[in-house]
Every structure is written in C-alpha cells, then in structure tokens.
Amino acid sequence: MDNKHEILQLLRSVASGDTSPEQALLEFKQSPFEDLGYAKVDFHRNIRQGAAEVLYGAGKTPEQIIGIASAMGERGCRNILITRMEADAARQVADALPLEYHPSPRLGIAFPGPRTSLGNIVVATGGTSDMPVAEEAALTAEAMGNQVTRLYDVGVAGLHRLLSRLDVLMSARCVVAVAGMEGALASVVGGLVDCPVIAVPTSVGYGASFGGLSALLSMLNSCASGTSVVNIDNGFGAGYLASMINQMEGLEES
Amino acid sequence: MDNKHEILQLLRSVASGDTSPEQALLEFKQSPFEDLGYAKVDFHRNIRQGAAEVLYGAGKTPEQIIGIASAMGERGCRNILITRMEADAARQVADALPLEYHPSPRLGIAFPGPRTSLGNIVVATGGTSDMPVAEEAALTAEAMGNQVTRLYDVGVAGLHRLLSRLDVLMSARCVVAVAGMEGALASVVGGLVDCPVIAVPTSVGYGASFGGLSALLSMLNSCASGTSVVNIDNGFGAGYLASMINQMEGLEES
Amino acid sequence: MDNKHEILQLLRSVASGDTSPEQALLEFKQSPFEDLGYAKVDFHRNIRQGAAEVLYGAGKTPEQIIGIASAMGERGCRNILITRMEADAARQVADALPLEYHPSPRLGIAFPGPRTSLGNIVVATGGTSDMPVAEEAALTAEAMGNQVTRLYDVGVAGLHRLLSRLDVLMSARCVVAVAGMEGALASVVGGLVDCPVIAVPTSVGYGASFGGLSALLSMLNSCASGTSVVNIDNGFGAGYLASMINQMEGLEES
Amino acid sequence: MDNKHEILQLLRSVASGDTSPEQALLEFKQSPFEDLGYAKVDFHRNIRQGAAEVLYGAGKTPEQIIGIASAMGERGCRNILITRMEADAARQVADALPLEYHPSPRLGIAFPGPRTSLGNIVVATGGTSDMPVAEEAALTAEAMGNQVTRLYDVGVAGLHRLLSRLDVLMSARCVVAVAGMEGALASVVGGLVDCPVIAVPTSVGYGASFGGLSALLSMLNSCASGTSVVNIDNGFGAGYLASMINQMEGLEES
Amino acid sequence: MDNKHEILQLLRSVASGDTSPEQALLEFKQSPFEDLGYAKVDFHRNIRQGAAEVLYGAGKTPEQIIGIASAMGERGCRNILITRMEADAARQVADALPLEYHPSPRLGIAFPGPRTSLGNIVVATGGTSDMPVAEEAALTAEAMGNQVTRLYDVGVAGLHRLLSRLDVLMSARCVVAVAGMEGALASVVGGLVDCPVIAVPTSVGYGASFGGLSALLSMLNSCASGTSVVNIDNGFGAGYLASMINQMEGLEES
Amino acid sequence: MDNKHEILQLLRSVASGDTSPEQALLEFKQSPFEDLGYAKVDFHRNIRQGAAEVLYGAGKTPEQIIGIASAMGERGCRNILITRMEADAARQVADALPLEYHPSPRLGIAFPGPRTSLGNIVVATGGTSDMPVAEEAALTAEAMGNQVTRLYDVGVAGLHRLLSRLDVLMSARCVVAVAGMEGALASVVGGLVDCPVIAVPTSVGYGASFGGLSALLSMLNSCASGTSVVNIDNGFGAGYLASMINQMEGLEES
Amino acid sequence: MDNKHEILQLLRSVASGDTSPEQALLEFKQSPFEDLGYAKVDFHRNIRQGAAEVLYGAGKTPEQIIGIASAMGERGCRNILITRMEADAARQVADALPLEYHPSPRLGIAFPGPRTSLGNIVVATGGTSDMPVAEEAALTAEAMGNQVTRLYDVGVAGLHRLLSRLDVLMSARCVVAVAGMEGALASVVGGLVDCPVIAVPTSVGYGASFGGLSALLSMLNSCASGTSVVNIDNGFGAGYLASMINQMEGLEES
Amino acid sequence: MDNKHEILQLLRSVASGDTSPEQALLEFKQSPFEDLGYAKVDFHRNIRQGAAEVLYGAGKTPEQIIGIASAMGERGCRNILITRMEADAARQVADALPLEYHPSPRLGIAFPGPRTSLGNIVVATGGTSDMPVAEEAALTAEAMGNQVTRLYDVGVAGLHRLLSRLDVLMSARCVVAVAGMEGALASVVGGLVDCPVIAVPTSVGYGASFGGLSALLSMLNSCASGTSVVNIDNGFGAGYLASMINQMEGLEES
Questions:
Q1: pLDDT of amino acid E202
Q2: Can you give the residue ranges of the PurE domain (chains A, B, C, D, E, F, G, H) (predicted)?
Q3: Is H228 contained in some domain?
Q4: How many CB contacts within 8 angstroms connect chain B with chain F?
Q5: Residues with Cβ < 8 Å from E12, sequence gap 6 or more?
Q6: Which of B242, D128, E44, E145 sits most deeply, having the most CB atoms within 10 A of its CB?
Q7: Widest pairwise Cα distance in chain E
Q8: Phi and psi of A60, rounded to 5°?
Q9: Starting at the edge strand that comes first in sequence, how are the strands of the sheet with D174-179 ordered?
C-alpha cells in the first residue's frame, strides 16, 4: 500500500461500504514510520498527502539530517526538500549524500532526480529583498514537479511594472504573492487574476513593520476574493500549497 | 467580450504575441462597470475572476443593496451572494426582488437560479458555536455550484468524533476548517488529508481568545503542509476560495 | 495684531534683529484667548496657524458648543468647523446660531459664509464604507477654501476603477487616500502621483483589522515616497493638512 | 522541625485548636534561611512546599551558585536542581562540588543522591525542537523521585504517531505536553486522557509564533478540561508541578 | 463498557500485551456519542476523563440545552454542570427538567443528585468583584464531589487578611487563586503552601488591566513553584482541574 | 517625454479632452524602466514624481548598488540618494563611482552635482540620540535642492531651549519633528507653527518605548492640526515629503 | 492601638530592639477588620497607611456600600471616599447616610466632616474631556485635607495657555498632570517644575489612542525627571498619592 | 540668579503681584544653557528642579561626556550623575576627570564631592537579578544626599523574607520597589507601608514576561494606594523621584 493509487482504491471501497472506516484506519496505520530515536520518519505522509518528502532542517544537526534523508533515500525517495538548512550544515550533508543546495533560501534538495514541469505557478515579489522567501516557494514548487514563472520586484509603488506583466499573471493557475512592508501586492494581484492567490508576508522592513506583522495583517484583510495567507516568511508552505492547487485533477463530471 | 471564453482567447493571443498586453488592457477596460453614484457595479469581475457575483452587504443601506442587485439581475446575473446583511435589511430587499435568506450567517442569495453541484468540499467546525461562520462558507460554496459536506462539532478535544468521519474528510477535494478558541482543528485535519485546507479562525471564545486572535495565530503556525488561512470569521472568503480550488480544471495539456 | 500680515511683519523684524524673540513672544501672548470657564477660546490660533477656526465637538455639551461658537462668531469668525457633533446636538445648536450640518461625517459649519475654491485636492476612498471619514476630510478642506474632487470606491481589488481615473489623480496638488482593511490604496496612489499623499486609515473592517490597526500599519509601511499618515478615522486632520499644502505660497526665488 | 512530618503534626495541632495559627507562624519563622549577602538561602522551602531544593541559575555567577549549593549540601540536601546554568558555569561548579549536568536543558543536579521512581508522568512533545524544554521537565521530575515516560515528536500534524502510543498516554497519572508553533498537542492530549495535563508552550517557531505567544494563547484556550498552562519554556515549573500531582497522597485517610 | 472500571481493565490488558492498542481503540469507539443534529452528546467523556458531565451553555439555545441535558439525564447522568447559562435560559430549562441555578456565576446543575464531599480545595479571591468567577470554580468542584473552603477578599494589598487565614490555606490539598488587576495573589499563595495552586486571572479591573491580560501575564510569570494558570475568567476549568487533583488516588498500589 | 513639462502638457491635453486617458496611459508606459535582472531601474519615477532619484540600499549588495547607480548616472542623473548603506558597502561603491557618504545616517549621494537651496525646512530633534534619523531627513532634503535649518536637542523636557528658537521655527515653510521616547515634540511644535509638520518617531529609548511604538502612537494622537506621521526612523521619507511641500508652486496660475 | 502614634511607638521599640518584629506583627494583627460577610472592612488601613478611608464602589451593590460605609461611620470615620459609584447607587446611599456626591467623576464622600486645606497641589488637564478624571483626583485630594488648584484645558497644542499660568505651576508642592491622546502634558510640566509630577493617562481619544495606551506609554517614556505614572483613568490613585507627598513631614529631626 | 533661593524670591514677588509672570519668564531665560554644538548644557535645571546634575550617557561618545561633564564641573557642579555609561567609556572619562564608577548599574558620578545623608529611602528588590536596576536607584538617591537602606531578594514567593524586615520597611519615608516577572512586590509593599511607593518594573524574566511588560502592567494595576510607576528598568528615575519626596519640606510655614 505504498502509493496513492492503492490508498485511493481502499478509500473508494470505504465509500462504497465494502470496507469500514475503522478497518481502513487499521490498514493505514501498519508500519507507517521508522523510529530513528531522535525522529520518527514518516513514510506514509506521501500516501496521505500525495506530496514530495520534506525534511524541516531547522533545529536539526547535520548528522540528524543525514540520517533521516538517507533513510528516505534508501526507500527510493527522490527530490527530498530540506528547509532552513544553513550553509555549514549543507556542506556536511553534501559530503554524505547527493545534494543540490540554494544558499539564499537556505534550501536543499537531496537525492535530486527527474521532475515534471506541470501547469503554471507564478511567484511574484514586491521588492528585491523579498527574493529569498520567494525562492523558497519557487524551488519548492519546482521540486514538486511544477512549472514556475518568477515576477520579481513588481511592488505596487511602481504599478506600471506589474501592469506590464499582466499577461504573465493572468495565465497562471495559481499565484504566490510575496511581500513585506505594507503587503499590498496580494490585494492588487488578487483583484487582477481569477485563480487562487497565496499571500506570503515577509519579515522584510523596518519601523512599524514589526517583523512582518504589518504585511500579515494587511494580507489577511485583503479585499480581494480568492486570497489566503500563510505564516510570515513561510515560502515553503506557499510553494507546497501552490503545487497542490496547480496539480488538482479536473472534475470528471464537469 | 462578456464571457470567460472570449477573454481567454484574447489572453492566448497575447501569449502568442498576436496581441500586445497594452492592447489587451484597453479591450479589457471598455465599459467595465456601471456607476450608480454610491457604488461602481463591476460587471467584469466575473470575467476576470470567473466567479458568481458578490455584493458585500456590510455598511450598505437596503436601498443601495436593492439598487446594485437589481442592476446585476437585469444584466442576467443569478445566484448573487449578499454577505453580512441583517434580517431587517433582508426583509426590505425580499420585498423588492427574489431573495433566499439565511439568518444565522446573515447571507442572502438574490435572483436564485439553478446551480450545479460539482466536486466535494468538506466544511468542518470545532464546535457548535462556529456554525454561523461555517454556514457562510458552505452556502457560498453551494451558491457557486459546488457540492458541500458538513462535518460540524468535531473539535480536537473529542478526537474520536473527528476520526469516526475520516472517510468523509479523506474524500474531499478541499477542506474548510472553521474553529475558534485554540484553532487546533486546522492542524489536525491538515495532517490527515492530502488536499488543500483553508483555515477560518472564528471570534468565538472568551478570555485570552482575544476576538479570534488566538485561533488566527494558531492556524498560521500550523505545522501541517497545505494549509492556509483567511481573515477571522471570513466564511465567505473561505467558501469562495474553496470553490475556486474545487473547480480547477485538470492539467491535460501541460 | 489680529491678522496674519501683522504677525509676519513682527517676525520679519525678529529675523532682522530689530526685535528680540523674547519681545515677540510677549507681544504674542497679550490677550490671546477668552476664558469661558469650561474652555479657553483661542483667538490667536488663526494667527499662529493661518487656518479656519475649529471646534472639537466630541465631549462637549450643546450648550458649551453654542457658547464657544457664539463667542467666535461675535469676533467675526465665519465657516467655523465643529467636528464629531451628533445629530441631536446639531439640532440644538442650529436653533441658536446659523449652522450647516452634515450627518454622515457628523460635521457642522457654524456661521457659514463665502468661501474660495482654490487649487485641487483629490479625496479618494477604497470602498463605500470609508465615505463618512472621506466626507469629513472633503468638507473640512472645502470649508477652508479649497476645491475638492471626490474619487470614491476605487479600491485596489478592482484596479481598473482607479486607473480609469488616472487623469483626475494626476492633476491633484494633494491627495487624501482614505481606506480601511488592508489600506493598500495609499501605496498605489503614492506610486502614481507626484504630489503629497495624506493617508487616512479607517476603522472599517472586521476580523484582524483590529479597529483600523491593520490599515494604519500598512500605510505607515507604504513603500511610496511622499506619503504620510494621520490617526485612524481622522478625516478632519487630513483635510486640514491638505488645505495647508494646497494653499502653500510659491517660492519667490524659484 | 526540619522535615515534613513535624510540620504536619504542628498544623494538625493547629487544626485541633491545640495551637493557635499565630503560634504556628512563629515556630515556622525561626531560623528559616541563611544570609549569604547576595542571596537568602531558604531552608524552609522544602518544609513549606515539600519539594526538592531548587536553585535558579539564571543571573547568578558560578561563585554564587557554588556558595549557595554548598550551603545546601552541608545541610544534607541531595539532588539539588540548578536551572538555566550555562555549560561554562557548569564546568566551574563541577570542579567545586559533585554535579550531574545536562547541557541541552542547561540543567544541573548538585550532590546527586539516591532517588525513588514513583508513579508515572508522561512528557510529550510536538516536535524534535521542543526537546530541550521537555528534558528540563522530565529531569526535574526524575530528580524529585518520579518515574517519567518520554513521548517525543508526536505532534498533531501526524496524528497516527500520537494515536499509536495511546496506551502510554492513558496510563499516566499526569501528562506534561510541550509544544511550540500552534500548540495543539495540549488540546488533543487533554481530550484523550483523564488525568491532569500541564501545557508548556515553547518559543520554538518562526513568523507569527512571536516567541511562544501563539502556543501560549492556543493552550490557554484549550477546549479540553483538566488542562492548565505554565510560562513559555518553563519546563522546570511543569516538572515540579507534575511531581506534586503525581505524588498526591490518596484521600482514604483524610 | 460503560464505567471506568471496565475501561481500566481493558487498558491493563493492553499494558500486559493481551490486547493491542488498535483493538482497544476500536472497542473504545463503538457507540460513543448520540447525534442530536446540532450537537454530538459524548457519553464516553466520563469514561475517558472520569468526570462529571459538563455542558457548555455559551452559544446554545435553551432548547438545545434541554435536548442535550435530557438525553444525558435519561442515560442516568446526575449533577450535570451547565456553564455560562443566562438567567432567562435557566428559567426555560428549569421548566423542563430539575435544575439548581446560581445566577452570579451563571452556572446550572441539572438533575441534581447526592454528592460526596471529599478532601479539601481552597478557593481564594483577591477582591469582592472576583466572586462570580470564584463561585464558578467552587460550585464546579462541589458538584464533582469535593469539599470546598472559600477565602474571599484576601488580596495582597491587605496582607494581614491573608495571613490571618494561613491555617486554612495550609490545610488545602489544592488551592484555586482567583484575582484580577495585578494578579499577585497567586504568587503569594504559591509561596506559602506546598500543594498545587491553580491561578485564574479575572477580567475585573480597568485601565491597563486590558480585560484580564495584566493578571494573566502576572500569573504566568509567578516565581512560585507549583503554580499553573487557566484562561481568563475560566472558573469552571479551575474547579474541574482542582477536583482531578484533589481526588488523585495515592501511589501505594501503583 | 523625459521631463516634467512634457508630461504636464500631455495631461493637460487629457484634461481638455484632446487625448483620452487610455492613450495617455499608453504613452506613459513606453520604455519606463531598464531591467538589470535583479532590479528594474525606474527612469520614469522622476517624471511621475518630480523628484531626485532614490536607491534603497537596504538588502542590496555593493555590486547591485553600483550597477543601478551607474545605469542612473549614465542617463544623466545627479545627486542620487542611496539610503541605509553600511560603511563597508559605501567604501566599495566609492571605488566605482563618485560618492559623498554620511556615516551616521548611513546615507550616500552618488554622482553629486550642483543643487539649489530653496525655501526653508526646519529639522528639529528632541535629543542628541535622534540625530542620525534627523540627518537622514536633512541631507535628503538638501540633496533635493532645499535649504535646511537644524534645531537639535530641543526636547520638551527643557522647554526654554525650544522657545528661545521660536523665530527659527516660525519662519519655516515645513517642519520635520524627530523624536523618540514620548514623542511630544511634534505636538508642541505643531501648536506653535502654521506650516505642515512631519513627525518622525525614532526607535531611540528603552523600557516601554518598544522600539519607537510609544513615540509613534504619541505622534499619531497629536492634538495639533497640520501634523502627519511617517514610519519609525524614516528620516528619508520625511525629508522627501518636506521637499515636496517646500517646493509647491503657488496657486496664482491655477 | 488605634491611632498612628501608638503604632509608631511600637515600631520604634522594634527599632530599638525592645520588641521583636514578630511580636510587633502579632500586636498588629489583633482585630484589624470587621467581617461583613461580603467584605472585610479594614480599620487598620488608616493606621498602616495614615490616610482617609476609601471604599471602592465598582462592583458593589448600594446595599453593600451602605453596609460598609455605615460600619465605618459608626467607628467615627469622616470624609469617607466612595469611588466609581453610579448616580443611581448614589441616590440610594444618600437616603441611608449623609453623602456629598459628584456625578462627573462618580465620586461620593460619605459622612462629610471638617477638613484642612494644607499645602498646594496643582491638578492640570490637557483638554476639557479629561475633566472627570481630573476632578476625581482633585476631590480626593481635597477630601484628604489638601488645598488644590485646578488648571484645566492647558494642553501642549496651545502652549501659551500653559505658559501664561507658569506662576501657578511653579508654586505647587506636587502636580497631577491628566491627559489623554498623546499625553505630552506630563513631559512639558515635568520639565518646568521642581516638584514631583504624577501623570494620569486618560482613555479619552479615538483611533490609535487605544483606550489610553498611547498616553500611558508616552507618560512612561517621559524624559522629564521626577515624573511617575498611575493607571489609566486612575484619578483617585493620583489624588491619594499627591496628598501623601504634599503632607510629607519635614526632615528636621532626621 | 544662580541658586534656588533667588528664584524662589522672584516667584514670591510674582505671587504677590510685584512681578508679572511674563517678566519672570524673561529673567528666567537669560543665559540658561551653554551650547557645545552637540548638546545644550542646561545650567538652570538645578534651579528649576532643585536637583543634582544628571547626564544621560546613552548614545553619547566618551568625548561628548567629558565635554559636558567638564563644563559642568567648571561651573562648580559636584556629584554629577552619568547614567548608562559602559565600562569602556567610563575608563576614558576617568582619565579626563575625577570619576566614581559602578559597573553593574553602569552609573558614574563625576566630580564626586561631600554629600548629606538625609531621611530614609528603602530600595527593595524581588530577586537577585533585579539588583543592577535597584543599585541605579540607590546610588542615584545617595548621590543626591539621601540615606538609603537596601532590602534585596525579598520577593513575594518567599513572603517570610519580606515580613521579617517589616520594621525596616515601615520606617521608610519613601520606598522604591524593584521587581521583574510578576511584579507583585509593589502591591504587597504598598499595602504594608504608609509612605509613597515608587514601583520599577525590570526586564528580568523570560517567556511571557515580554521584556518587562508583565511587571509593568502588574504594577500599574496595583490595588495598593500610594503607588506609582516609572518606566521599565528606570532605576535612575525612581531614585531621583524618591529623593524629591524624601527631601520635601514640611508644611509648617505654608
């Protein structure tokens, strides 16, 4: 029961009444993770969530990262995302296993393998300094098999820069809008496109930006429909969700 | 240029270089709204955003609501959502035009017409008192042509209530998780399903819930991937976004 | 020493050394206000600040308002602004002295007289519900002798509504941008025009708008140069400052 | 009057009326502490509170720690907890007196001696990075004579990890739930067990976790009965209280 | 499997390996609640949590309260706590079923029956205005079978009032300290007794008490060991937890 | 269309109806910026905003600064302001192009050229430690061709220092009031002068100044008319706006 | 031991070693209050604090107020302050005992008797709407036997009003500065006088005054030495403290 | 007019009408400070405020400190307090002029001279880590000629430590209560003594102490009359105010 197809079959037999939910839960829970002592590696996540493997690097030693990523690699995982890994740790990890590392968003991709390049996700930023967070979103989405178009430095204080790229924006299946300071980019983009917009407030700014709080509140209060928000600086979360949306299957009956 | 097909054709000719973006912008902007004095009714929104018409009732007089909705109805709009409309106002509006009114979420649907019932959106709540916000989400999604399954009062302090409905949750194309107080529902649901989860914090609670702030922060910090957040009590926004996601077209050609 | 000319002469003689600052201060302070017991009516303010008379109505009884305004009127003041005066109080005041009253911004103009209509101030709002604050700004500016152009309901979630009035915006000598929720209007306008922009956050909104805090922070963090902010809902302050800027004298030597 | 038995006898004679409360207070207060100049060592605390000795290391020099701990050790104290002591200080202290040091929670145990291992306290964490705080709780409880079971990395975003250890949880006399980010662990655990749950928010997280505030508010708003909260990162306080509860005497004799 | 004994037997057989945790979970989940449409009445809670039934009255109509309480009463529940029920609702409920109602804490006890009066819980308040919250705690604890001693109006600004009742405080098995404003009562009590102290901040106060935030922060920062905190005004939660602690079984048999 | 005159002519032809706004927008948008990859250099800003060129140094590498400033310099720009540039970066930039650098406000002026010294802007500070922010404002205004008078260390706790310079204050066309701590300077100055006052809160202070929040709130709540506020420490924004106001053309011709 | 003299004698004998502190404490605690059931009337407070009797009216019923005040009156207390008593309650109280009532500060003085009028306390306000809080301070101080001079409506936005009363200010032994909004009055006054200044922030204001928080922070950050702050709207506390300071005995004998 | 006597004479002649306030103001303002360019040294402060000279060291270079202190010393000032001066700066200053330096509160006393030791100020702290702030208060008061008694480490979690020093507390003319964390010391002390209590919140603590905010709010909400608060960590301000109060002249002659 190691791929999404099998699990879907099981759930459909639940839906049809052939299997009880309790029975399904039991099958689900057999051997779902490997216990490394310092972490429980969850091999079922990609079954339950249909996604690439992710390893949160923050607060883990290089040794722990190597241990977990290796266990994943041995099970055949490819394109394993390692978030918030500092350059020093990356060097150690790269000695132990194949690693593609991006220093600005501090993102690693272990056991890189072939990827698809599906659909179209646009990642837009208000300014140049929002780029590290935007890159975390863009690289995450690319590692999960999506085509990504970058629209950087198109903040609303120079609206013509955004408007001159209207065609790019309007062709997106999903937009990730990354901005600090007043966070107005999400509202403006949300009013222009007809696809879901994921807003990412960044901690870029000074004064009364309060570490991203200003942009966060601004984005939550966006008047544009179809907009939702992730945590401050959470480029990974935005990229992951954008991938989910971009890769939605069509409605058979529609 | 009054339906989505035409506008897509135009944008594809932009993509192919046959039309410049500036030219497209100009075509776009011809006669986009009707000026009623107190409001600019935007008939192009459903072109640009592919969505049902929405009329924000908050802060508008019954007369203004009637004026705007009538103008929309005359242009052929059906299932026009009117948000945050008090019961008194609804009575006046119902005298002037066909209206379906839901008092708990204070939501009206003017000029109700036939709707599709596509896909599957699950709306779940932590408690009974989150129901008005959840109904705003569910009714919005239904008015926009989606099939909605309600899972109310499945908060995490009684986890077995949620687990016994696991089959319903796992069959969703999109989940709207509505909760006040500690807002843990979004995290738990987000860890169980493999589809986008839209978290809606509610202002339900007392003490240190601070009008929904506690649930909002909790949901923003959710460790579960694929989760994003809308504003406190913004059931409409969640239902609208859930509809967008549920009705995504498949990726056939890419 | 009752008009601005005299006071300027005095100050120039200070600048030239003919009068010491201390001497000027003394002249300044002779008979500057009338003590009504419950308030000190300041007849020198229009000397020192070159502005119409203003009477803050909040927290004053109708009797106090009548007393103060009458004292001003007897000294020859015209177009006396009375801010935040409820309709009930206005009725009482209107019985005692000539009054022009605007219920939505709760603004009165006592002893209305002839006014000029100088320059060009644009007052723009994001939505319909920002209108009361905007009207406080616009009526204040008009009472102080300025020409005002209103651009209401041009919020950034429907950008084409704003862009279609670009000519109006760009002809302004000063813009007052009034918006609640995410407050993005100030940034967008600030990037489009080359005159000072005064941003007024409004307490309109719900959820995480926190009574205008979201719009306030957003506006303070605006990336657009030339933008400054007044207090939440302070339409009067914005109109007053806009008048000051609009009526600046040219630089003799430039 | 140096052990708990004597003090209980005294208080019972108060309850029976043989001794007045004032008299008891006087007996209580004779020679309760030793004045070292920079600190007042309180030898009565373990009488009044029935607990192991604790020495708050934060803001004390190694010399001060050695002085206080030595004074305690000379009075016969064993298993003296020293909280928040940096590794450098620990090295100096270890040169002067017998010390067991745990670097991750920065916790020392001076004059380690034999301990009991009573009852059953479960310490659970949401993630790997909550471990230092959890270890402070667990080691505190162990030093005070309790049996502790650790359940680490069982956060609610992977609910099956928690459910698969349900037997461990349900056998606890008291649970310490340690979590950062959205802090949902306390609610979920609180709904599953029928013993007191002590929630410890941690400052782990980023973005809108605001140094533990998000987890703190979430835990305070927990819908589960039987849950209370200690300060952010206060593993010591949680372990101390858990020990108090675990070692409650039965009601039979009261 | 309807009483605590049976469930304990089951869990012991889990502990001994005779039953798997998964099997236990399944047995657990059979028929755990009755679905009334608007609420899921949870008859297993008292199995899982070993506590009296509780019905959160806030946000429920009198009809819903009657429906849920009647269903409980028919299953034999007695002393059902109904929290935050307004006097009007109480009158309607009292017409439909036996009800004991306390207006100041807005607490009802449906189907009142015989209770034990075990152990000793002290409920102390800083001032007279903290009494409603304190009564919610005291009545909750009494309904759950505990003996409660009230110490009201013993705030720290008149320390002698507290000290003169030291004997009462020191005989408690658990203290609930209820205080608004600066919340210092919890710290002072926590330093005097050697049993768990549950601190309840109240929203009593004005100015910079910010609806209980001041007392909440103060209590969280208490320097006294053995103290934990529940939500602002959460008298019920404190009484419930105090009952759990007071009724702990002794360790002899474990 | 490279200077302000041409653009004004265009807009007047819009006003007269000879050109449509849409047409004007198109002319506007031709070749407005140069794309350097990491930034879009905006050569139209000085057309639209009539101001000196500004380059936000924060978050840019010295190489990026050199690249952008050189592109500007080659187009003939002079007196290019570079904000928030650290001393190290300044040294590298100074090796590549002509640069005047001010270390305390971390402000650079690239390609310095001749400037006018028009009108009169007064920059006042509450204390000595507000000087870096004040210098950012003063140097910005000077680089943009304004005459600036500095009034430093005239805080309200020593009122006579401010009053003894009343003549300087009252001769200003615009005052920039820079203060941290309680920020009272803006109110006092605003009550004394009859020109616009731009308040700049600074992050100077300790304790409950909360990084400038105290001064910010104080300034927003100023009772003096004609006062507006920019972001904490935003000396540049204040200087820029002061220049706009100081250089307003007179109304004679409008 | 019912007057201050006796207690001083006792404490001096403590100081001289003739009495132990413990003994003194015991004497202190004999019969210090009368228990009315709902309140503990504290007859020792005026011994320990040397002040007039005070009865906090907030949250007490008229019956409770009458009960407590009567008990005090019977013991010979005169000029008993009753704070925050609504007009309705005052009418009931006035029927039962001699009462002087001031509706604007909601302050009652029960059993009014002869008073001294010592020293000189100045109570100043920024605006007219700060008067209720100021009157609470002034009447409190007068009831406690002090001479009070009122300086109302002397806010810093019209500095000449304050300066023209400089002689009054400088003759004070203690100043109470009452202000809302930006709270600058305390700083300006603190810089002018050489006596203690007690700052009282008021909740007067709107927008970002946040219920007095802005004025509170401003006053805490005052740069003027000799200034301290009481809670928002706490006129009573300021008047009480001002009386203490005004009535300090001279240092002759020390 | 260089000492307090002369200025008092002047003011009395104002009070008697022999001199007008305006005239007094003029005399006041002649040569009040020396302009060093970077600072205005205010020689009149000790006239207006009757206090020792103070020099805020924060944000000043050693050279500036030497310059200002030397100018003061040359005018005959002795015991000049220099606050918040780092050890490095102190070493440089000590090379240039006579300096007594206290490293823990970072306080210097330049040109130390003979001092009186009047009255009795008690400085109390909750814990050992509050000592640096307490020492700033104590040394400030001593430098200004007051006798100071230190009561350190008497926090309320060990109430007997405080009660055993009750005699010291009750003999004070003014108490400075310094505490972090929950700040309860001020309330407890305020209820015990009958003299003014100045509360100083400290930034000592962790978790939800939020840099002193918890203690600040707690102290502002103190129920004890006669208590006021200064800024977080503002030991200097408390010592200064305590000196003012301690040295109040008696009322005999007024």
A1: 94
A2: 119-251
A3: yes
A4: 5
A5: none
A6: B242
A7: 61
A8: -110, 145
A9: D146-151, D118-125, D174-179, D197-201, D227-229, E227-229, E197-201, E174-179, E118-125, E146-151
**Cα–Cα distance, C155 to C158 (Å, whole number):** 6
Contact B221 D213 (CB under 8 A): no
Q: Are A and H touching by the rule of 3+ CB pairs within 8 Å?
A: no
How does pLDDT run across A186-222, given as a tens digit for each residue? 988 988 888 999 999 999 877 888 889 999 999 999 8
Q: In terms of pLDDT, which residue wins out, F19 or H34?
A: F19
Which has more confidence, D98 or C194? D98
Q: Tell me which chain C residues have a C-beta less than 8 angstroms from the C-beta of H22.
A: 26, 29
Q: Quote the pLDDT of residue C51.
A: 46
Is residue C1 in some structural domain?
A: no
Selected for mutation to probe chain F from H31, H38, H220, H231 (highest F CB count within 10 Å) is: H231
Q: Which residues of A touch E (CB under 8 A)?
A: 22, 26, 29
- Residues of chain H contacting D40 with CB distance shorter than 8 Å: 153-154, 158, 161
> Three-state SS for D215?
helix
| Alpha-carbon distance B161 to nearest alpha carbon in chain D (angstroms) | 11
- For residue E95, is it within any domain? yes
Q: Are B66 and B90 members of one domain? A: yes
Chain C residue with the nearest C-alpha to that of F217: C231
Question: Which residues in chain C have their CB less than 8 angstroms from residue A220's CB?
Answer: 207-208, 214
Would you state the pLDDT for residue B33?
A: 43
Q: Are residues D135 and D231 in the same domain?
A: yes
Question: Are both E141 and E67 inside the same structural domain?
Answer: no
Tokens at residue D21, please?
């409360």
Q: Which residues of chain C have pLDDT under 70?
A: 1-52, 252-254
Write down which chains contact chain D via at least 3 CB pairs under 8 A: A, B, E, G, H
E55 inside domain: yes
CA distance F121 to F169: 9
Mean pLDDT of chain F: 81
Three state DSSP letters for H132-176: HHHHHHHHHHHHCCEEEEEECCCCHHHHHHHHCCHHHHHCCCEEE
- Cross-strand bridge partners of residue B55: B82
Task: Read off the pLDDT of each residue in H86-107 and give the average, rounded to a whole number.
Answer: 95
Q: Which of B14-23, C84-93, C106-115, F208-217 has the lowest mean pLDDT?
A: B14-23
Number of Cβ pairs < 8 A linking chain D and chain H: 45
Q: Which of G110, G145, G171 is the last residue of a domain?
A: G110
Q: Measured between beta carbons, which residues in chain C are less than 8 angstroms from residue B28?
A: 160
Do E45 and E169 fall into the same domain? no
Mark out chain A residues that contact chain F at CB-CB < 8 A.
127-129, 153-154, 158, 160-161, 163-164, 204, 206-209
Please tell me which residue of chain G has the smallest CA distance to C59. Answer: G129
B33 and C153: CB-CB below 8 Å? no
Secondary structure (3-state) at D42: strand
Q: Which of C17-31, E204-218, G58-72 has the lowest mean pLDDT?
A: C17-31
Determine, for residues F206 and H231 on separate chains, whether the beta-carbon distance falls below 8 Å.
yes
Which residues in chain E are closer than 8 Å to H219, comparing Cβ atoms? 182
Half-sphere exposure of A25 (CA within 13 A, CB side): 24
- Same domain, yes or no, for A77 and A137? no
The average pLDDT across G69-97 equals: 92
Mutate to test the interface with F, among H28, H30, H40, H209 (most CBs of F within 10 A): H40
Instruction: Indicate the length of chain A as a whole number.
Output: 254
Same domain, H56 and H165: no
In the numeric block, which tokens belong to residue D82? 């020293």
Using an 8 Å Cβ cutoff, are D162 and D190 in contact? no
Q: What is the CATH number of the domain that holds C238?
A: 3.40.50.1970
Segments forming the whole domain that contains residue G89:
30-110
Last residue of a domain, one of C110, C132, C157: C110
| Nearest CA distance, E231 vs chain A (angstrom) | 25
Q: Are residues D48 and D141 in the same domain?
A: no
% of chain G exceeding 70 in pLDDT: 78
- Model ipTM? 0.83
Examine the domain organization and report whether E179 and E102 are in the same domain. no
Domain count, chain A: 2
Evaluate the CA torsion angle A222, A226, A232, A233 in order and state its sign: negative
Which has more confidence, C201 or A46? C201
